[in-house]
Amino acid sequence: MFSRRFTDQTGAFTFAGVAPGTYHLLARQIGYTPLDTVLAVLADSAPVLRIALSHVAIQLPPVTVTGKTTCGTAGPVGAPELAAVFDQLLENARRFELLADSFPHRFRIERIFTTVDRQGRNEVSQVDTFERESSFRWPYRPGRIVGPPTGPLNNDRLVRLPSLSDFADSTFVDAHCFRLVGRDTLAGSTFIRVDFAPVAALRSTDVEGAAYLDPVTYQIRYTTVRLTRPERGIPGVAAMVATIHFSEIAPGILLHDHVRSVETFAWSHTPAERIEEQRLLGVHFLRALIHPQ
Fold first, then answer.
1. Higher pLDDT among residues 47 and 192, named by residue
2. Nearest 5°: phi and psi at 7?
3. How many CB atoms lie within 10 A of CB 103?
4. What is the pTM of this model?
5. Hey, which of 71, 181, 182, 283 would disulfide with 177, CB 3.0 to 4.6 Å?
6. Do 293 and 248 contact (CB within 8 A), yes or no?
7. What dihedral angle (degrees, nearest 10) is formed by the CA atoms of 175, 245, 279, 140?
């Protein structure tokens, strides 16, 4: 049995009602080396432990490099720089999961759909808003990211884009290969980029892309995603690409605040593209948020 929790804004945390015994304590923070220790609790004692984590220092060359591709095995192994960066990606995912578990929330999103015809003319076809609970789950299954048809045309389907929590999901990790690209620029800023792609044995529609981490804090800022073999999952779709941006809604708390996906259609009697943009309008926490650090 184990218990997880955030610290408060001062970095303090408390476990109440702890019976005497020996406990395994693991303290983690994005951008810092975890502390893994054993703590003995004696009868009628209230131990106070001060934890000091050291900042992660990952040495990357100043130019773009290519790390070895590593597949499966619940995370990259063998390439130290790749493993170190992947550990920080994993910390981002774990923190996202802990937020959803500890502080359930509801977020409201605006969607704008735009069609682009064969002459390159844009037309906004639909604008709406929807709400979703943090408890919503669509578990990743290899090759099963495309939902059933939702409209009269077969290309009206829901597509499951990777969520941040997927990088802590062994099913997702084992189905993909990871490669450290190094430093790369996106939207005018420099990030640490890690690419991922389906393992060779996965022949159905899935996703490949990249995660972009802040080189100082190691917080995730963007993911870019492309469907692999889209024609096998969505008739008439030649390509689909998406960019997901993450920002802090409170200190240390990241959520995706903007998503832009572009579908390119192969059939001449359909629009050339359909663009969907999602914008985070607000977040309502069902429990009081303690602004974890």
1. 192
2. -80, 170
3. 19
4. 0.86
5. 71
6. no
7. 10
Q: Are 207 and 226 in contact (CB under 8 A)?
A: yes
- Residue indicated by tokens 């389906």: 198
Contacts of 80 (CB under 8 A, 6+ apart): none
Mention every residue, 6+ apart, whose C-beta is less than 8 A from residue 83.
75, 76, 77
Q: Give the model confidence (pLDDT) of 277-287 as tens digits.
A: 999 999 998 88
Write out the two tokens for 9. Answer: 């804004």
**For 197-209, what is each residue's pLDDT tens digit?**
999 999 999 999 9
The residue extents of the domains of the chain are 101-285
| CA–CA gap between residue 207 and residue 224 (Å, rounded) | 10
Using one digit for the tens of pLDDT, what is the confidence trace for 131-164?
Answer: 999 888 889 999 889 887 665 544 567 888 888 9
Q: Which CATH number fits domain 101-285: 2.60.120, 2.60.40, 2.50.20, 1.25.10?
A: 2.50.20
Residue 10 has pLDDT above 90, yes or no: no
Following DSSP, what letter does each residue of the chain receive, concatenated? --------TTS-----SPPSEEEEEEE--TTB--EEEEEEE-TT--------PPBP-----SS---PPPEE-TTS--S-HHHHHHHHHHHHHHHHHHHHHHHS-EEEEEEEEEEEE-TT--EEEEEEEEEEEETT------TT--EEEE-SSSTT-EEE-PPPGGGGG-HHHHHTEEEEEEEEEEETTEEEEEEEEEE-TT--SSEEEEEEEE-TTT--EEEEEEEEESGGGTSTTEEEEEEEEEEEEEETTEEEEEEEEEEEEE--TTS-SEEEEEEEEEEEEESS------
Measured distance between the N- and C-terminal CA atoms of the chain, rounded to whole angstroms: 24
